[in-house]
């Protein structure tokens, strides 16, 4: 895909020279290629070959910079490379690399990058036939396939060691085609209209003050962006946040829970999927004074009355919409998420333990528990909110299938 970024991990095998053809082939398809070589790979091919082909520096180790500043930069480079790239392709994937990936052994740049990388992984194994057929390699491969990685090849034929059988690196065109398939954006939400709410609400106390909460909108905006990228029409109803709207979404800005209620109820009939990530006020001030409240020496109490529960009303009005609520909790996550699922007539509730450090409100990462109308809860481990958003949408589609498939 033009503009896609691919990390090409090169393992130490005779087929390492073919990785140079693969790098060129990917570049001809418009990909930007970052090559990472293992120490063993450099015994077969020089980094200069890849640097010249990709017009990019080649990464050869975790700590191979000379100055202190460069060393510090290189110590976290695997994280930056993991976050910047769309695909990790490893060719040749040696028996040693497969074993290390399968068991999470991270002793060099490529194996460390593998653990930090959260996108699709393509493995093109190449090795001697006996090594390929060894039960240890088979078991490692089974682990990696189960993890969702794509394995291309190996092909069969005369190997460098003189034997004939499976073990040859797959043809470069085949590896390239699989890389392009993995890079192609998924359009599995085409035809859907996804209504997402995001951010906090602000409930006025007087003309200059309000009650609000810590929601930054990041979780809701990530969901809107992911749904739009997957082909959905997206209506994003957002409280006040500092985020730019994702491209292609229809943004409706609101301030208060009452405004969000109106906007949601107007958009609801158009929606096929509703995701309520917003942190909406549960209470608002009963009679907001029209003038600024003056400071005085006496105590001042706010008379709060319950705000309308938007999600509960969606649950009452829903026809064929699939409804996803959130539950921001500081304790009893599973029980509270399940209670909200039932009481608000949702199909899924995303349980968010907001008391845990580094996740929930404001942070770039999240870790959630999906409580479903059908089946067991699904735990999504800590990951950037964009990735969590994609996983929530995957689960929404699975749930849609389960709910519409007769038992
Ligand atoms: O915005 P970020 O900084 O990225 O943080 C993300 C988040 C923590 C806000 C998000 O992951 C999250 O948990 N959102 C739900 C916050 C919340 O209000 O939870 P709740 O348990 O109080 O509400 C349960 C559900 O009812 C939510 O779907 C909420 O949108 C909805 N609700 C609540 C009150 C109300 N008056 N109307 C509602 O619709």
In summary, what is this structure?
The chain is 37% helix and 24% strand. With 407 residues, it is α/β, with parallel strands linked by helices.
Task: Explain the overall architecture.
The protein is an alpha/beta fold and 407 residues long. The protein has 2 domains: 5-183, Flavin prenyltransferase-like (Rossmann fold, 3-Layer(aba) Sandwich); 193-403, CoaB-like (Rossmann fold), CATH 3.40.50.10300. The protein has helices spanning 16-28, 41-44, 47-54, 68-75, 77-84, 95-103, 109-116, 129-133, 135-146, 172-183, 218-229, 257-267, 310-317, 333-343, 385-404; strands at residues 5-10, 32-37, 87-93, 121-125, 150-151, 155-158, 164-168, 193-198, 203-206, 209-211, 233-238, 250-253, 273-276, 283-285, 304-306, 322-329, 348-353, 365-372, 378-384. Helix 1 packs parallel to helix 3 and helix 11 crosses helix 15. The structure holds ligand PMT. Residues 199, 215-220, 257, 276-280, 282, 307, 309-311, 325-328, 340, 352, 354, 360-362 line the site of ligand PMT.
